[in-house]
Every structure is written in C-alpha cells, then in structure tokens.
Amino acid sequence: MLEQEDKILEVRQLQTHFFTDEGISKAVDGVDFVLHKGETLGIVGESGCGKSITSMSILRLIDSPPGKIVGGEVVFKGENLLSKSEATMRKIRGNEISMIFQEPMTSLNPVFSVGEQIAEVFRVHQNMGRKEAWKKAVEMLKLVGIPSPEERAKQEPHELSGGMRQRVMIAMALSCNPEILIADEPTTALDVTIQAQILELMKTLQNELGMGVIMITHDLGVVSETCDRVAVMYAGKVVEYATADDLFDQPKHPYTIGLMNSLPRMDIDQESLQAIPGNVPSPYNMPNGCRFAPRCPHAKGICHDAIPELRNTDDGSQVRCWMYTPEWEDHSDITKAGVK
Amino acid sequence: MFVYIIRRFLQTIPVLLGVIFVVFLIMKLVPGDPAVLIAGEGATEETIETIRNDLGLNDPLLVQYFSYLKDIVQGDFGESIRSNRPVFDEIMVRLPITMELALISILFSIVLGMIAGILSATKPNSIADITIMLLALIGVSFPSFWIGLMLIFYFSVQLQIFPVAGWDSWMHIVLPSITLGAMGAAIIARMTRSSMLDVIRQDYIRTARAKGLKNRVIIYKHGLKNAIIPVITVIGLQFGVLLGGAVITETVFAINGLGRLIVDSIYARDLPMIQGTVLTASVIFVIVNLIVDTLYRYFNKRIELD
User: Transmembrane residues, as ranges (chain B) (predicted)?
Assistant: First the structure.
C-alpha cells in the first residue's frame, strides 16, 4: 500500500444532485476514493452511473442550476475544495488540477488556433506575455508528439484529425504541470489504433511529470492497461474499490462480475456474451435497498431493504455488497418485507 | 483571405448585371410609350416614330439593355422628368444623408441588440432576461412609423428635447436612428441571445472553464466569437430591411434622403429617377452583403467558398 503522505486527493461522501422539474436526480450519492501521487485511479461504470459528474464535481464545473454539490468533501493538498471561493478554484483549474474530455472534436474552440488555446493557459496561470506563451505552446505540442509544431500551432481545430486534437487537449491540460489530470473518457471517441497511441502518450507523460491521473472510462480494456486502482461505480455509488490486479483476478461485487462476463474473452470458448439483465435504475426513482439488487442474481430480501456499506474485505479491497457481510448468512430468502 | 475577397467581389458582378436588367425592365414593363409622352399631345405619328428611333426604342431589347448598361457604367442615369436635372447628381445629394442615417441606425441596433442579447443569455429566465425579451418582442412587432410618431410625440412635442423634423445637427439624428434601428436592435438581441445560449452549452466552453479562465473571458472571448457568426448574417439582412425602412422613417421625420426621393419619384411617376434610386439601393445592398460575407469568413474560417 502507498504511504499516507503520498495522498494528493481524497473524495469523501461526495453528493451531487440535480434539481429538475421531474424531481431530484441523485447522480452522485456518497462517493469516496483516494488518489495518490503518480497513481492512476480508474473510475468505471456504465453511462449515467455518475462517473463524469464525479469528475466535474472535483473541479466544481457542475452547471448550477440545475446541479448542486449537496454534501461531502474534496480534499486536495489538505484543503477542502468545496469550501473554496470561485477565484481560488480558477487558480486551481487548468493549473494544479486539469481535465481532458471525451470529445476532442467539440472540446476545442473552433474559432481559435490550437496554439492560442494552449498559450492562453500560460498567460492566465503563469502571467506570461504573448510571445513567450506562444513559444511554450509550441513546446507543449512538440512534447505530445505533434510533428512540425510551429505550423500546427497556427492551425484551427478543424484542420486537425481526432487523434491530433486529443493530443492538443493533453498538451493544454499538462501545460502548467498539474498534480492531477482528470481524463474523462479520453479515448472513447477515437479509433482503436489512435486510442492505444493516446494511452501510451498519457502513460509516458505521467511517468515523466509524476502526476496523479483519474481515468474515467466505461472500457475495462483501458482500465486494465492503465490503472493502478479502480473504483467501480453503479447508480451514483462506488460498489467496489480495489487494485486493478485484484479487480480482474477476483471481482467481488455481482455488478463487477457482470461487467467482466460481458467482455469478450480470448482464453475460453464462448458462444455469446453475457449481458447483465435489466436496466440501470432511473436516477429519479432509486431502489430503497442496494441499487443493483433488482438486476442482481444473488439478491435476497435484505438487499431490497437496506443499502450496504462500502466495507473492507480480507485482501484490502472494498466492496458494497451484503454478500460479504456477516448479516448475509443470517437472512433467509424470505424476509419481513417479502419483496421478490 | 485576400483571394477570398477577390473571388467574392467577382461574384457580385453577375448579381449587379441582373439587378440592372430588372431595373431596366421596369421601364419596359410600365404601360405607356415614353415617345408619346415626350412628343406631347397632338404630335404626328411621324414625329413619334423619329423620337422612338432617336431613343433607340425600336432596337431589340438586348441592344437597348446594353446601351442602358453602358450609360449606367459611365454614371449616366438619365434625366429626371420632374426636375430635368441628371438623376445621378440628385441621388448623390441625397445618398449621404440616408447612408448617415442607416449607418448610425445599424450601429445603434448592433450595440444595443448585442449587449441586451448577451445580458439575457448570461442570466436566462431572470427578470432582466424577461424584461429584455419583452422589449425585443415590442421592437419586432410594432411598426416603425408608429414608434417614430410616438417618439416625436413624447420627446419632441411634450418634453421638447429633440427637434420634430429635419436634418441639421446630431440632435436631429437621434430620434430617426432609434426609429429605424429599433426593429434591428430587437432582432439582433433575440438572435444574440439564442446563439449565445447555444454556444454556452458547447463542450469548448466547459474546456475554457476547466482551464481556469474568468467568466468574463469565457463569455466575451470564447463565447462571443462563436455566437457572433449567425448574428452577422442577421445584421447583413437587417441592413437591407433598414434601407427599406428609411423610406418610412424619412417620410415621418421629413428628411430629404434617398428614401424620400424614391417616394416622391413614385408619386410623380418619374421613371428615370425611380430606376436610379432603386439601382442605387440595390448596389448598396450588394456591397453590404460583400462586407458581411467577408466578416463572416473572418469569424468562421471553416467557411469555404462553394
């Protein structure tokens, strides 16, 4: 296990809700995780599980209204970001914690040259003059492996390919040598070959610059390639939190197991892939008990009655499931509530 | 960029030829024979025929068109039937007045419309937003002659701040500009608001926020330069509407501009003058469109010609 001092970010009981006409959507509902220096933490889950909202909440980029961070703490270098002023947050964004997004096509401003968009970061956070900032922008483009960076810097995003644009996003995010890089599905919109290049680039730069990375993805392949530790999210909560090795060797939560089973495998002969039955619950109408219970093959009465805590297991990972608690054996299939 | 402007400029030539052709046809399609008019009552058939020949009215239509075209290019728009003075000279006296009015009005529309639109978009559904959009609705739906008369009634007659009519000092410009620019301001405000609201939701605005930029920089640099693209189109179209609106505004405020010249010529059936004024207005519109397209291209380099 990593040392306590290496901890650069700790998210505690984060709750981000959306207040809409249809009701309150508890998109993120009590999420905990820790990021250490130089480590890559994966946040995995299906669309709508709250993984992107979690990452946006860290930098307080949630549009309000309708979104609001209603509870919890985001502790960065010993201080809670949720109680910081907007001006302080601006100094942190793009400087100490930066972010790259899923869609490189739309995440760059179409009417400014890519050089200008990178140079802007240097001007804002390091008070550089125009010329100096531009020079640094060209250097950054070179760092992320863009050929003839001087010419490329003058081009606008539409003149670049998807992979190039994601490189530009990475260059922009890493300009101020951040301590944390949040990558929200950085390779989802790219071709498979380009995906590998971008992941490789991120890995190299992470080793060079020593930053912590939060990798938001739904792709377990990306997780296995890049992450040291993984938080699996389901319906706004972390259901399993383990090292990547443990997660792939011994997935514990039935949801994680379901995810693994839905992956194609080379080592065994499969007729067809196993999908998880049922659907993700509506964020406006969450089940009372474990949120995965309605889709879980092992669910008992207790699962429908109460939400399990995220508990430590013997091998040091954490899982939010009644199956791994002493109460599991005490409950027979028929309970007082008598649900299902 | 330079090549674009040249190519775009060359494209206006066929448009202008077409415009001149239509203006030329006005003369041909209006009932009555100009030769008879010129010869006067009681002229013999022979005299009329001579005049026809002199004026080239017996030539084929295309020949007549080209000879008309030749005159136009040389700045010869014919002579006014009403005043017997060259049409070109009269237009040149009136044109600067209308251009001044139009430019100040469009400037008023742009400044007021864009500021109001941005204010609305940055605080959607606030009291400021609702008030601005209500005013904009009034601006688009109330006819300009009514707005003009109301402005005269309150500011000139009752409060006596601005003169009722005429065109001498900057005081004379205020009310006509508001009258003429009100609808433009309202349309630009609505367009800016919807365009800005659309832009604010884009991914690159989220990127700009994640970079740690100030809200002001995000709105006015990253937002506005994108949001302005459709607004420019509206401004261009609005300028055309403005030239039409000048006819009414100049009549209401008794300004001797091009608009009033058009109205007076129509009343007097002064055909050469009507042709000249319509042609002038068209040429201005074509030039404005050229400027708008160039600006459009400047703000959105993704646009390629054809």
Answer: 12-30, 101-122, 134-157, 169-189, 227-253, 273-292
